[in-house]
Design a protein that fits this description.
Radius of gyration: 21 Å
Order of helices and strands: EHEHEHEEHEEEHEHHEHHHHHH
Strand content: 15-25%
Helix content: 40-55%
Oligomer: single chain
Number of helices: 13
Largest sheet: 10 strands, mixed
Number of strands: 10
Structural class: alpha/beta
């Protein structure tokens, strides 16, 4: 085939056949055909791996990479290395694209951009909702300028509903088009070993190196929500994963503060670190709900002791102490108050009752 304009990269791991077929169909039937589709089989079951090969046999635009199970980060990184096109799009194997997505993106792309961002549609069994990121559309953001750089640094680090804006996070992978040369020249890759929130680290790394960012209002990507997903299941290593994430983010936030402080002439600038500390404070809830106080935790007798041990680990200890009550929701204020007093069981019981209500 001729040199493709897009490389569409899909990590594949034991995805449901019907979802996978819908995903592949939405790409192969694009109104613009100048693309290659790279399926990275991350050590799936034999039938799923065979399905990848079967797709490739039927369409020359499809290439398959088989690897031992190493996680989505390694799969995406291998896809980046294998890509031939100038522009990269990531798709998850249970999601799908609008059939004219690539054509519409092609008409908006410019070699000046490092990243172009579009909108996702969150899909559940009962509704579809177009996601709002709180980013101005049809505007070229120049991240060599303080205003734009501060806007994106703070947006990627803070909690999504900061300042009661109720906007979506901007650190998902699949709602963007990446200039491959930008990723390669700056050696930007996904963090290996991080099973959750790898997108946040990757996009943060992009922002640190990015010059030009463009956002369009087109809703092109359908993101399938699944209540049975890993986001809701018991996780025995959730504490280790969240600690790893926090230790990655803290120095990144500090470096961003230093850069913005130099640009603004304010050596005491610390707003990005403050935003990140609020985010880390939020991570505590993940650990408490998905490990220590999850119904499937087999070690209920020791969970309070282990939860307290984790809470007193840096930087989570500092987040409980340093994040101010000002600007918090009522629930977050209660959380800070109870955790400050080590009343972790009380907090989890109250939160569970609140969620049921």
């Amino acid at each position: 085939m001729n040199h493709p304009f897009f490389s569409v990269i899909i990590p594949v791991y034991n995805v449901a056949q019907t979802f996978f077929e819908e995903c592949i169909s939405s790409i192969l039937n694009q109104t613009m055909g100048s693309f290659e589709l790279i399926l990275v089989d991350d050590g799936s079951r034999a039938e799923c791996a065979a399905q990848c090969d079967a797709f490739a046999e039927k369409d020359a635009r499809i290439r398959v990479i088989h690897q031992e199970n190493q996680g989505v980060s390694v799969a995406r990184n291998n896809g980046i290395l294998a890509a031939c096109a100038d522009w990269i799009v990531f798709v998850d194997a249970d999601d799908w694209l609008e059939l004219d997505s690539l054509e519409r993106l092609y008409s908006r792309l410019d070699s000046k951009y490092d990243i172009l961002m579009f909108r996702c549609i969150r899909e559940t069994e009962t509704m579809s909702k177009v996601m709002d990121y709180g980013i101005e559309t049809d505007r070229l953001y120049d991240l060599t300028q303080f205003e734009s750089k501060e806007f994106f640094y703070r947006k990627v680090m803070r909690v999504p509903n900061a300042q009661k804006q109720r906007t979506e996070p901007m650190y998902y992978s699949c709602d963007k088009v990446y200039r491959r040369a930008f990723l390669m020249e700056n050696e930007i890759r996904y963090p290996v070993g991080l099973a959750k929130s790898e997108d946040k680290v990757f996009i943060t790394r992009c922002l640190e190196k990015m010059h030009y960012f463009y956002h369009v209002d087109d809703a092109l990507y359908h993101y399938r929500m699944n209540d049975a997903s890993v986001c809701h299941r018991y996780s025995a290593n959730m504490d280790e994963q969240r600690l790893m994430l926090a230790k990655m983010l803290v120095p990144m936030a500090n470096n961003m503060d230093a850069e913005l402080g130099e640009m603004s002439g304010d050596a005491s600038y610390h707003h990005v670190s403050d935003d990140n500390m609020r985010f880390i404070f939020g991570l505590l809830t993940d650990v408490l709900y998905l490990k220590y106080y999850h119904n499937d935790n087999p070690d209920k007798k020791t969970r309070r002791r282990e939860a307290l041990r984790f809470m007193h680990t840096s930087p989570f200890r500092e987040s409980i102490k340093e994040v101010p009550y000002r600007g918090m929701s009522s629930r977050s204020k209660i959380k800070k108050f109870l955790l400050s007093l080590n009343m972790v069981t009380t907090f989890c019981l109250l939160s569970r009752k609140y969620r049921k209500m």
